[in-house]
């Protein structure tokens, strides 16, 4: 049968079967004969022998130590009796109270009995009627030994014998604290020449248990050493047998290996090439190909792999095209969610706390009225390009771009624990980037732009909103409308944040003005905070502006147009500027002006002719002047390039005058 017609299974079966058979025969012929049974038998015999020796030693030690213990206890009773006789014999009568209060007699009568350095028993003293004079337990003294006759009949029998016999000894049983049955040994000696009897009482097993423990430990140590020596001998024998088996096995492996190499070579080389190619694909090289050589299955696998590379290349190109194209219309976070989550396109949403950012260019519509469409697109794309770049850097989801206005939010679809701080930092970065945009605009002769930014934190509904044919990932709710209201109060160059956002970022920001404003659809007064800088890892500080109003040498006449919803609702020609800065003007006027409404200013020269260019602003304050006339403070939101020289000349004239 030719090699190419054999399957991979047949190749493996032939090569490894031959090798395994040779190895098995060699190893079983040499190595499977000795070690386990021999060593196990030796250990069993040694353990049994040591157990027999230990048991015999324990039994013998118990007998010997019991005899020794009995002698020691009797000797102790005799010693105490002799000492007490020295104090008490030869008296006709005895004052028991005096005897019990004598510390020397108490010390002699009550003694501890030790065995192997540990307390095993004690001595006490009673008279020939059973009255107890001295006992280690003070509660027992003064009672009679015969009081416990019913509970301890064996002990009572020995006590009665001691009344008539000089030397009484024997065993009696009792239960210890663990309710185990134990034995005590008692020797009772009469004190010569007195009516008193000394009792020496011990737990007899306390004498031989420590010694037995030492004997057992010694036997265990000997047994352990014997077992270690047997195991060492086992290792030596095992090593010798294994070396012999290894030599024989190597010889057999050599023979089997030569046969196995012949069969496996046709499989291993193509598989190694295929493995290397898989690693290259994992590194992104989808154009790699492998030779279609080897056995039938390997050839088929190589062909499938080469086809897979072509399919992957085509798929990656299409996926990248879809992602890049789709990413120009929605944010990368939403693109990623749509590509990875099969349920991402389902309609619906969830309530979640997010931070919303809303920005808008002040006076943009009026500034671009006279511009060509191509100029407007270039002008707007420069601004939006920079803003979108910053928003993406701060992981914002851009909800909507309406002309020059942007709505974005932070904290969905991916949760962000720091979304309030991130939103404020993003707003500060956007506002700081306006200097760069205006520098480029001025170089191209385009108008100067002013942007207002608002940030609010609150609960909204976030999710896929729309229909099966047209939908977007967006946020809706009262907090979105509130953010829009805040943005309408933001002046050019300002970042205003809500009280909810301020509460979450107050440790990181520096606050400028604090506003209290009434808003349409919002009950009560809303407190807004102007952010001047943010610390922490962001460290962004807005450039300080020259906002100090300078009194003009002569009033500057102005035509003022009131604007609501980007529509002129009235014109006031009786307006004159009295104080001026680069960002603000204070005017006197007759007629009507309302705080926080939008206005357009047209400056006039000394002859009453209109100076080219317009100024858009917001009325921040209206009050009565010292002369009874009304005055208003107007913050500039957008200034035409032609007007800036007029403002600077007026300021220089006021400074020199």
Describe the protein's architecture and organization.
By secondary structure, the protein is an alpha+beta fold. Among the domains are: 53-203, PAS domain (Beta-Lactamase); 345-541, Nucleotide cyclase, GGDEF domain (Alpha-Beta Plaits), CATH 3.30.70; 550-656, predicted glycosyltransferase like domains (Thrombin, subunit H, Beta Barrel). The chain contains 15 helices and 21 strands. The chain has helices at 8-30, 35-88, 96-101, 103-109, 153-164, 205-282, 296-326, 332-340, 364-367, 373-393, 419-432, 434-443, 478-489, 499-505, 643-656, and strands at residues 112-115, 118-127, 132-134, 167-175, 181-190, 196-203, 348-361, 397-402, 405-410, 451-466, 471-476, 495-498, 509-519, 522-534, 540-541, 550-564, 567-580, 584-589, 598-603, 615-624, 630-639. The strands form three sheets. Strands 7, 8, 9, 10, 11, 12, 13, 14 and 15 form a nine-stranded mixed sheet that branches. Strand 16 (550-564) and strand 17 (567-580) form a beta hairpin. The longest helix has 78 residues, at 205-282. It is elongated, with a radius of gyration of 54 Å. It starts with 7 loop residues before the first helix and ends with a helix. The model has no long low-confidence stretch (mean pLDDT 80).
């Amino acid at each position: 049968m030719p090699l190419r017609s054999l399957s991979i299974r047949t190749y493996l079966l032939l090569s490894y079967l031959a090798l395994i058979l040779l190895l098995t025969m060699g190893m079983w012929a040499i190595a499977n004969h000795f070690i386990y049974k021999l060593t196990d038998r030796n250990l069993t015999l040694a353990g049994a022998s040591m157990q027999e020796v230990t048991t015999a030693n324990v039994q013998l030690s118990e007998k010997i130590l019991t005899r020794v213990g009995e002698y020691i206890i009797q000797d102790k009773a005799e010693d105490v009796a002799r000492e007490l006789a020295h104090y008490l014999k030869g008296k006709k009568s005895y004052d028991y109270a005096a005897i019990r209060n004598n510390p020397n007699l108490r010390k002699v009568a009550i003694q501890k009995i030790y065995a192997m350095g540990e307390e095993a028993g004690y001595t006490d003293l009673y008279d020939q009627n059973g009255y107890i004079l001295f006992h280690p337990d003070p509660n027992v003294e003064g009672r009679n030994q015969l009081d416990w006759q019913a509970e301890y009949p064996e002990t009572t029998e020995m006590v009665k014998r001691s009344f008539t016999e000089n030397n009484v000894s024997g065993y009696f049983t009792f239960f210890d604290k663990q309710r185990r049955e134990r034995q005590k040994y008692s020797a009772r000696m009469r004190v010569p020449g007195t009516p008193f009897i000394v009792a020496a009482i011990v737990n007899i097993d306390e004498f031989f248990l420590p010694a037995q423990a030492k004997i057992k430990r010694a036997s265990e140590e000997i047994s352990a050493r014997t077992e270690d020596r047997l195991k060492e001998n086992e290792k030596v024998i095992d090593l010798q047998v294994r070396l012999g088996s290894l030599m024989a096995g190597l010889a057999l492996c050599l023979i089997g290996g030569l046969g196995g190499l012949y069969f496996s070579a046709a499989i291993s080389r193509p598989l190694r090439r295929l493995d290397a190619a898989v690693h290259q694909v994992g590194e992104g090289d989808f154009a790699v190909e492998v030779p279609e050589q080897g056995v039938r299955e390997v050839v088929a696998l190589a062909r499938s792999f080469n086809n897979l590379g072509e399919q992957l290349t085509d798929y990656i190109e299409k996926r990248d095209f879809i992602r890049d194209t789709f990413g120009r219309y929605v944010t990368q976070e939403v693109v990623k969610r749509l590509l990875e989550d099969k349920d991402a396109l389902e309609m619906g949403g969830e309530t979640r706390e997010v931070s919303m950012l809303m920005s808008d260019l002040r006076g943009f519509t009026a500034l671009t009225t006279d511009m060509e469409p191509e100029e407007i697109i270039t002008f707007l794309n420069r601004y939006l390009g920079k803003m979108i770049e910053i928003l993406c850097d701060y992981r914002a989801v851009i909800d909507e771009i309406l002309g020059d206005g942007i709505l974005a939010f932070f904290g969905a679809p991916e949760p962000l624990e720091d979304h309030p701080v991130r939103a404020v930092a993003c707003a500060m970065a956007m506002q700081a980037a306006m200097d760069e945009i205006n520098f480029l605009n001025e170089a191209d002769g385009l108008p100067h732009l002013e942007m207002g930014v608002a940030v609010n934190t609150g609960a909204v509904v976030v999710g896929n909103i729309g229909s099966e044919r047209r939908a977007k990932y967006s946020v809706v709710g009262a907090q979105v409308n509130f953010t829009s209201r805040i943005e309408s109060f933001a002046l050019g160059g300002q970042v205003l944040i809500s009280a909810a956002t301020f509460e979450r970022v107050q440790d990181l920001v520096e606050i400028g003005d604090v506003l209290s404003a009434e808003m349409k659809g919002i009950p009560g007064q809303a407190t807004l905070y102007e952010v001047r800088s943010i610390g922490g890892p962001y460290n962004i500080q807005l450039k300080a502006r020259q906002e100090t109003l300078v009194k003009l040498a002569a009033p500057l006449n102005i035509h003022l147009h009131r604007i609501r919803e980007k529509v002129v609702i009235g014109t006031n020609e009786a307006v004159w500027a009295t104080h001026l800065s680069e960002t603000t003007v204070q005017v006197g006027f007759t007629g009507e002006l309302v705080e926080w409404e939008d206005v357009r200013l047209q400056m006039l020269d000394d002859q009453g002719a209109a100076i080219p260019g317009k100024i858009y602003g917001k009325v921040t304050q209206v009050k009565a002047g010292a002369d009874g006339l009304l005055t208003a403070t107007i913050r500039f939101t957008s200034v035409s390039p032609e007007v800036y020289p007029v403002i600077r000349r007026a300021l220089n004239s006021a400074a020199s005058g």
